[in-house]
Amino acid sequence: MEHLAVVQSLCRVGLEAGDEKFRKQVERLRDRLRKAGDMEATEAIDGLLASQQRAATLQPSRVELSRSLAGERLIGTINPPFDKESGAPLAQIVLEPGGATLPPVLTDELEGALDSMLREWADDGKLRSIGIAPTHSCLIFGAPGTGKTVTAMHIAARLGLPVVLARLDGIMSSFLGTTARNIGTLFEFANRYRCVLLLDEFDALAKLRDDPQEVGEIKRVVNTLLQSLDVRALLGLTVAITNHPRLLDPAIWRRFEVKIEMPLPPATARERLFAEFLAPVTVQDSALHLLAWASDGASGSEVRSMTHALKRYLVLEKPDIAHVHVEASEVLAALRRYHVTSANLEDRTRLAALREDPRTIARTLLYSAESSFTQGSVAQLLGKDQATISRWMKEEPA
Ligand SMILES: Nc1ncnc2c1ncn2[C@@H]1O[C@H](COP(=O)(O)OP(=O)(O)O)[C@@H](O)[C@H]1O
Ligand SMILES: [Mg+2]
Predict the structure, then answer these.
(1) Do 102 and 128 share a structural domain?
(2) What is the CA(145)–ligand 1 centre distance, in A?
(3) Of 19, 51, 305, 354, which residue is the least packed, with the fewest Cβ within 10 Å?
(4) Ligand 1: does its nearest atom lie under 6 Å from the Cβ of 47?
(5) Does residue 166 sit within a domain?
(6) 266 in ligand 1 pocket by Cβ < 6 Å?
(7) 204 is in which domain, residue-wise?
(8) 3-state secondary structure of 72
(9) Is residue 209 situated within a structural domain?
């Protein structure tokens, strides 16, 4: 299709406005393109439709806020709680936790768990009328960079609530000796307002426990925390986050009604993350497939830094990349130049394999254990026709 980039931009702008009639027209365009056999344009337009759909279904405004939640409204002029001696803030207030960021990419299972928790809050009147309280505390744990903080913010956004964000490591390290009092102050503040209390870096508490000098202090802190969590359970929602669940005090662990483990993203989730982080650049499915394959073992934030590096290569080669569809073969070329510096990929040999000659790459992808590459997609990636790939495979079978 001629002028695909311009058409794509037009569609994107139109779809963002959210008009149903416009969407129908874009769907018609896609169907025509498919009939005409223009698969590149069909995929590009389809990608736009899908990402707009996702953004629309997850809009925070779609969730009805619980009406029976008590407390004052938290507004911009209210200052966060602070340490009485040093004057340092104990938390940060985030009025719009959804911000401009897209919702996190989660596995279906996790998405389901969150949905049911959020529904309890949206409909808590029903639950309370039969004497049951909605879930009021949730602990999110998992490896660094898996989207825990993003997900907690998303929970608050879906509920239409601001976040009182406390980093426990900050509270503990800077105010040793006054930690218990500061925790009390923090919870008092959170209980006064309608908000989600987010306790990030929650394992900081455990680090303190390693210090034999601090035994008395730890007891005081743990007790204060347990009491504070119990009181808060009747008043509002608390989300805690930790990278090291095993370090948590068992009594504190038990206080949380829902525990969510954030896994490393599986291949399908990595594909979605790549598609999202690559925007506004779009790529063919075979390229997304390759990126997911090559990034085995990466966390969400590693996928993000990988995408940024790749985008840099692609942009440097083509200064007008902003709204362009990048060929699968260009993505492979960029991946061949990508050298992991910070990413913690489990299996870097996959990236190394992509630096081999085309025949070896074809064999690796087609015979890779859990791969679902087809000769067609490998042909696209290598910029060859399918007959060539087919011939190569016959010449050198597995
Ligand atoms: N599941 C995910 N969905 C969307 N973005 C993610 C996901 N996991 C990681 N990220 C990206 O990585 C960055 C770090 O995520 P973050 O929530 O701070 O991780 P954690 O709190 O688990 O260490 C985020 O800004 C986001 O861009
Ligand atoms: Mg975090």
Answers:
(1) yes
(2) 5
(3) 19
(4) no
(5) yes
(6) no
(7) 92-262
(8) strand
(9) yes
Asked whether residue 223 falls in the same domain as residue 348, the answer is: no
Gyration radius of the chain over CA positions:
25
Q: What is the pLDDT of residues 26-78, one digit of tens each?
A: 999 999 998 988 888 888 888 888 777 766 655 444 444 555 567 888 988 99
| Ligand 1 within 6 A of CB of 304 | yes
Our mutation pick for probing the ligand 1 site, out of 111, 140, 301, 344, counting the most ligand atoms within 8 A of Cβ, is: 301
Extended beta strands in the chain, E state: 92-94, 137-142, 163-167, 196-200, 237-242, 258-262, 282-283, 325-326
145 lines ligand 1 (CB under 6 A): yes
Residue 142 Cα to ligand 2 middle (Å): 10
Same domain, 38 and 131: no
pLDDT, residue 383, reads: 94
Q: Which ligand is nearest to the CA of 152?
A: 1
Residues 109 and 219 in one domain: yes
Cα gap 216→61, rounded to integer Å? 46
What ligand 1 atom has the least distance to the C-alpha of 277? 27
* DSSP helix/strand/coil, 196: strand
Q: Does residue 65 lie in a domain region?
A: no
Q: How many domains does the chain have?
A: 3
- Is the domain of 231 the same as that of 281? no
| pLDDT, position 191 | 95
Q: pLDDT tens digits, residue range 112-143? A: 989 988 888 877 778 878 888 888 899 999 99
Burial environment of residue 321 by CB neighbours within 10 A (0 to 12, 13 to 18, 19 or more): middle
Centre of ligand 2 to C-alpha 198, Å, is 11
Q: Is residue 63 a part of any domain in this protein?
A: no
For the stretch 154-201, pLDDT in tens is 999 998 899 999 987 767 766 667 888 889 999 999 999 999 999 998
CATH of the domain at 187: 3.40.50.300
